[in-house]
Design brief:
Shape: elongated
Distance between the termini: 32 Å
Largest sheet: 2 strands, antiparallel
Structural class: mainly alpha
Number of domains: 1
Order of helices and strands: EEHHH
Number of helices: 3
Strand order of the largest sheet: 1-2
Length: 83
């Protein structure tokens, strides 16, 4: 916060470590958005796998048991490393 032409002008907030909290919040929101989109994508892909015929699964080298195992995984279990 700073004085500006006799009034208060609000600038980016800075936390105790000198980090720009507005930029940090935006970064956090972008990461959250990416994560939610990834989970949505996983849900769609797992549903699509479930809808494939046994013959199609055999063609791509998977079994119904493979699909059941994949579909039973929690939505957040995407196998990607966490930061």
């Amino acid at each position: 916060m700073a004085l500006f032409n006799g009034g208060l002008h609000f600038t980016h907030d800075v936390d105790r470590q000198g980090t720009d909290t507005k930029a940090g919040s935006a970064s956090w929101l972008r990461r959250l958005d990416r994560r939610l989109r990834r989970w949505q994508q996983l849900h769609r892909e797992r549903h699509q796998l479930w809808s494939l015929s046994d013959a199609t699964l055999k063609d791509i080298g998977l079994t119904r048991a493979d699909i059941e195992r994949e579909a039973s995984r929690p939505f957040w279990d995407d196998g990607e490393p966490r930061r």
